[in-house]
């Protein structure tokens, strides 16, 4: 069994042309707090960031490290090969292993690195991992209609609109709908496999 198989106890590190996708640890809690309190990240996710470092550590344990520990998914930290330090994250959660197997995908990127194709590069790699290593039949994500940038990205990756999740609370407590997008393994194009 290699270290990139989901059944391994070793978190799988992935690599693209410009990025290293690595495990996020508690050593990254200062980054997590700063990242998830950026106005652009809050607006895109619809969730307020942690109030302090302790809250950041608790969220990281619940939403990042706990996913892997409990076998519910993976969340990678994104670093540029040319420099150290995280610039974003992406991964799978709510991994259902019984057929048809599926997981949800989520992602964030420091706005200083937008418009460079970095998230498309990272997501292409984890989608490959999802279909080839996690044996997913389909991948889903939910995006608020106001997040046009994220919608455009996910559609470029081949995801199709498949539904609406009604009246989810956003960071202000306001009810808003979310669009559901799905990518089936059978629709995964060869252009996205590279």
Give a nutshell description of this structure.
This protein is of the alpha+beta class and 194 residues long. The protein is built from five helices and eight strands; from the N terminus they run E-E-H-H-H-E-E-E-H-E-H-E-E.
Trace the largest sheet across and list its strands: 1-2-3-4-5-6-8-7
* Average of pLDDT: 89
Major sheet characteristics: 8 strands, mixed
Question: How many structural domains are formed by the residues?
Answer: 1
H/E element string? EEHHHEEEHEHEE
CATH topology: Aminopeptidase
Considering the protein shown, what is the CATH homologous superfamily? Gcn5-related N-acetyltransferase (GNAT)
CATH architecture heading: 3-Layer(aba) Sandwich
Task: Detail the poorly predicted runs.
Answer: 1-5
The whole-angstrom Rg is 16 Å
C-alpha end-to-end distance: 23 Å
How many distinct beta strands? 8
Tell me the β content: 25-35%
Helix content: 25-40%
Per DSSP, the total helix count is: 5
Could you explain how this protein is built, in words?
- The chain is of the alpha+beta class and 194 residues long.
- It has one domain (14-192): 3-Layer(aba) Sandwich (Aminopeptidase), CATH 3.40.630.
- Helices cover 28% and strands 30% of the residues.
- The chain is built from five helices and eight strands; from the N terminus they run ββαααβββαβαββ.
- The protein has helices at 29-35, 39-45, 53-69, 118-132, 148-156; strands at 14-15, 19-23, 74-80, 86-96, 102-109, 138-143, 160-169, 175-184.
- An eight-stranded mixed β-sheet has the order 1-2-3-4-5-6-8-7, with helices on both faces.
- Strand 3 (74-80) and strand 4 (86-96) form a beta hairpin.
- The longest helix is centred in the first third of the chain and has 17 residues, at 53-69.
- It is globular and about 40 Å long.
- The two termini are 23 Å apart.
């Amino acid at each position: 069994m290699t270290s990139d198989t989901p059944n391994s106890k070793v978190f799988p590190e992935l690599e693209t042309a410009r990025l290293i996708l690595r495990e996020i640890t508690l050593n990254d809690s200062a980054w997590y707090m700063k990242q998830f309190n950026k106005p652009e990240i809050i607006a895109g996710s619809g969730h307020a960031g942690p109030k302090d470092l302790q809250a950041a550590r608790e969220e990281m344990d619940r939403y990042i490290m706990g996913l892997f520990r409990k076998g519910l998914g993976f969340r990678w930290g994104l670093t540029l090969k040319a420099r150290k330090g995280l610039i974003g994250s992406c991964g799978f959660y709510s991994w259902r292993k019984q057929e048809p197997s599926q997981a949800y995908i989520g992602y964030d990127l420091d706005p200083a690195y937008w418009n460079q194709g970095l998230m498309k590069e990272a997501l292409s790699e984890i989608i490959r991992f999802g279909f080839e290593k996690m044996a997913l039949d389909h991948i889903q994500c939910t995006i608020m209609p106001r997040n046009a940038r994220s919608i455009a990205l996910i559609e470029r990756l081949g995801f199709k609109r498949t539904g609406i999740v009604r009246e989810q609370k956003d960071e202000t407590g306001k009810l808003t709908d979310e669009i559901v997008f799905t990518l089936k393994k059978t629709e995964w194009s060869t252009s996205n496999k590279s």
